[in-house]
């Protein structure tokens, strides 16, 4: 197993990609601490992890609230006896869909920036000192290919994912001397309920069918197929294990060739 004896904190661990990533990490031998706002959904995933013979803890946390993140960090350190080897930041929001920049409300723009950048920064801020003490650690952030290129009518979301890349690269420079890697996985369109919501909203605004919007996405991809949560989970595993021990500050696009 690639993560035998490791202990991982995972934000946004319950739904869509989060569930797949959490179960992949656990299946490779790691104990996990699941973080999010929907504790019922977290418990469902935690029970699946426990069925694999791994230890799983659950913590309600709002990743944009410093006090909530501080409490989460304290609980995680207690649960893991101060050993945290992996931090995966998945929690995030979609924001306005199919909306020209001039029509985005300032509060909606700020909400996306805060959720996706601050919500990545605060868990890093809290967990990094524990990794520094141990002179080892893996931080894996979830960005997006909209942070590698422009994304028409998604100004808030695209801006936030560019920000996650900048945060990842800077943190990598700061923590590298302590043996800590920090990288970002950049999914494209992933077959989850969030993708369905995106397609339906685009279809509504354009007057298209859901199937037409879905087909447009597929045609934009070199491989002509949509990414699945398991594809993202495999990429996160790569950055979380020793296979990537000499890779840091890097982006890995998993998007079927959308950004090519």
Explain the overall architecture:
The radius of gyration is 18 Å and the shape is globular. The protein is α/β, with parallel strands linked by helices. Strands 3-2-1-4-5-6-7 form a seven-stranded parallel β-sheet, with helices on both faces. It starts with 6 loop residues before the first strand and ends in a 6-residue tail after the last strand. It has two domains: 7-188 and 227-254, 3-Layer(aba) Sandwich (Rossmann fold); 191-226, no CATH class. Helix 1 crosses helix 8, helix 3 runs parallel beside helix 4 (106-134) and helix 4 packs parallel to helix 5 (155-175). The protein contains eight helices and seven strands, in the order E-H-E-H-E-H-E-H-E-H-E-H-H-H-E. The model has no long low-confidence stretch (mean pLDDT 97).
Protein topology:
Blueprint: E1 7-11, H1 17-27, E2 31-36, H2 39-51, E3 56-60, H3 66-79, E4 86-89, H4 106-134, E5 137-142, H5 155-175, E6 180-187, H6 193-206, H7 210-219, H8 229-240, E7 251-254
Helix pairs in contact: 1-8, 3-4, 4-5, 6-7
Shape assignment: globular
How much is the average pLDDT? 97
Describe the largest sheet.
Answer: 7 strands, parallel
| N-C termini distance | 33 Å
Q: Total number of helical segments?
A: 8
Number of domains: 2
The count of DSSP E runs of length 2 or more, i.e. the number of strands, is: 7
Query: Looking across the biggest beta sheet, what order are the strands in?
Result: 3-2-1-4-5-6-7
Under CATH, the topology of the largest domain can be stated as: Rossmann fold
Radius of gyration: 18 Å
Q: Write out the CATH superfamily name of the largest domain.
A: NAD(P)-binding Rossmann-like Domain
């Amino acid at each position: 197993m690639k993560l035998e004896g490791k202990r991982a904190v995972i934000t946004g661990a319950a739904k869509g990609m989060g569930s797949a990533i959490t179960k992949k990490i656990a299946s490779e031998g790691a104990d996990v601490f699941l973080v999010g706002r929907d504790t019922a959904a977290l418990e469902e995933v935690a029970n699946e992890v426990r069925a694999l013979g791994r230890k799983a803890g659950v913590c309600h946390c709002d990743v944009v609230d410093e006090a909530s993140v501080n409490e989460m960090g304290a609980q995680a350190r207690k649960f893991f006896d101060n050993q945290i080897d992996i931090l995966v930041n998945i929690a995030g929001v979609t924001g306005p869909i199919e909306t020209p920049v001039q029509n985005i409300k300032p509060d909606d723009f700020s909400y996306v920036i805060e959720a996706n950048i601050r919500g990545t920064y605060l868990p890093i801020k809290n967990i990094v000192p524990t990794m520094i003490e141990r002179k080892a650690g893996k931080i894996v952030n979830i960005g997006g290919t909209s942070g590698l290129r422009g994304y028409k009518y998604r100004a808030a979301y695209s801006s936030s994912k560019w920000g996650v890349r900048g945060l990842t690269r800077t943190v990598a420079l700061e923590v590298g001397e302590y043996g800590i890697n920090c990288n970002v996985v950049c999914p494209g369109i992933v077959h989850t309920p969030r993708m369905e919501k995106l397609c339906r909203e685009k279809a509504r605004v354009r007057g298209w069918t859901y199937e037409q919007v879905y087909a447009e996405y597929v045609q934009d991809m070199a491989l002509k197929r949509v990414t699945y949560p398991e594809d993202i989970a495999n990429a996160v595993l790569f950055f979380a294990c020793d296979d990537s021990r000499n890779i840091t500050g890097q982006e890995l696009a998993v998007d079927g060739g959308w950004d090519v």
